[in-house]
Amino acid sequence: MSAYDRTESRFRHTVHVKSQDAFTLRPEQLTIAHGALTGRRVLMLEPVTTFFRFMDLPPELRQMVYDLLLTEEDDVGISTYKIESEPRKLCRDSFRTRYRTEKIKWVQLKEVAASDPPSSLSSLLLLSKQVQQEAGTSFYANNTFRFESLTDMKFFLESIKDFRRFLRYIRLCVDGYTSTKARDTFQLLKDATSLRSFVVHHDTLCESRPRGRGYHRTSPEGFAKDCTELFNALHQALTAREDNIKRVTDILQIVEGHQQHRKCRHCEDSTSSHPLTCSQTHRCHINCDEVASHHDNLVADVKRLIMEALGIKE
Fold first, then answer.
1. Which of 126, 173, 287, 303 is most exposed by smallest CB count within 10 Å?
2. Which spans are transmembrane here (predicted)?
3. What does pTM read for this prediction?
């Protein structure tokens, strides 16, 4: 029912119109001239036809949109979760952090996942096969994917299927390293022939680090043996195309991880009465002044072993 507006001296009624398609209201009033509704005034919805389709943009512009929307500044941490009677699913690390922070019970996880709004990536991938291919290529090629479990990494590589060939940046920081899991995972990673950076933590490869329950590590020899087929595939891909990467082992980056170029508590405080010596307090059981050379030697050993396994001379 309209209400009289004393300020404007006219009747006013606000109408909210909803439609699946974009429209504008024609400003002029239309009056029905014939039929049972003669004399009635109507509102006319004018379809909007001035827009353009996203797919009508040139491929270069579409690619710019994908890159801006899907490229993240930080690593994309990948994990998995399993609900009883449900198949295992991929998720971001932030999803698992959320249920821990909000103290969500596992039995509620399914409802939480279902109620979450879709991400930009999942929304794009559902539009069409062409958009799925274009957006997926940008997402997997431009982001660094971080894994804290070989099981999660293997599940991820299996799930993305043909998109494996677009992966360029992988970071692996695991304590539960086993050769069986590593070989199965690296076998799938062979499809990532565009790989430009494969980061592994020093802690995973160092034999000097103490071993404990659930903290399985490998050795430079073991790691080189596990990833020989992977680097052989990458070497063939580099040879087949012109690339600024000179050697295939340049793709491998071994970072210090928890080990930093910092002094232990004993060496920081020269007046300390701490009974332990420097080498006993350091994570790799070495003196603080040997940390840099210890790490450099580990990197050199791993890369040398890979080159020897491939039969490539320096």
1. 126
2. none
3. 0.75
